[in-house]
Structures are given as structure tokens and as C-alpha cells.
Predict the structure.
Amino acid sequence: MSDLEQLTQALARNLKRWRGERGFTLDALAARAGVSRGMIIQIEQARTNPSVGTTVKLADALGVSITTLLDHERGPQVRVVPPGQGVRMWTGDAGSEAHMLLGDDRRGPVEMWTYRLEAGDGTASDPHPAGTFEMLHVTAGELTLVISEERHTVPAGGAVSFEANVPHAYRNEGAVPMEMTMAVSIPPVHGVNGHH
């Protein structure tokens, strides 16, 4: 495969992918980029090799760099975080702590955390923006989750999910440390003109 063919294929794949991620129809992207719908279809089907000018317009309309659109190296991105390499975001008096392991904002931010709460310790959280969703998996001890004054008990091996736009608190009311992994999904921020 020639360099040019490789570039054409990469652009086809990346344009389709980013148009999907942004939620733009062909017509919406055409209007936003000032590039004809027919041209976009040809590019996405790898039937044409567009000018640099056209490629720049499309990249700008999608809010990505031109190198991102032309990048043919990007396979599925794998990110391994070694043990102990998370970012410590919170510590409690008793030695409790929370780490953020992973974050991604391609489809609205998603974060993965670990929490360790010593016996008798806990931490409360203010309501998150509407649409925020949390999933917790308890790996040791027992979690007492308080959501809008309502208590839920989750033992080790158990999991729980909830809409986090209300006050909530994580507590360890047991005699041994509680450990859990938490995933948080935050809704994407929409721009003033309704675009992602």
C-alpha cells in the first residue's frame, strides 16, 4: 500500500470516527466545515484524496488537529496503569484515601477511582451535575452508601450504580478497612450553539 493510499484510508477511518464521536450528520458536518456533502462521502469511502485545505476545514469543524485526522498509527488505544500509579486525590484523617486511576473525555468525561476507607471513616460528596452516573464495586469490607439520606449496604464482591446529582456519602461502618473501585460518567459539556 502506498503512502498516499495509507493516508486516504486513515483519513476515511478517522473522519468517520470523529464525525460519530461528535454526533454530526453528513449535512451538519458539511455546513459546519463548508465542504460539500458529496466530498465528505467520497473521503469517508476512501475514494478521493482531498486537498490540505479541505482536510484542515474538516479538522477545524470537528475540533481536532489535522494530525489526528491523518494519523494511521492509531489502533485501539490501550493504557495500562501500574499498581500504585494512580493520582491521589483525597486523603482522610484515619489514613483513608482515594486515587484516580484513569480518565477519558472522548464521549463526555469518564473517570475510574479507587477508595480505601478505614473502619469508622467516610467522606461525603456534593451533588454532581445532572446526568452524572456512578458505578461502585466493593472489593474488601462493607460499604455503607448514603444517597439523599437513604442508606444502602454493599458487601465485598457487590456493586451498586446510581445517579449522582443528589448529595451522597461513602462510609465504612464496619470493623475492617473497606476498599472499592468507582467509575464516574460525567455528561459532556454542550457548547452555546448546541454542538458537542
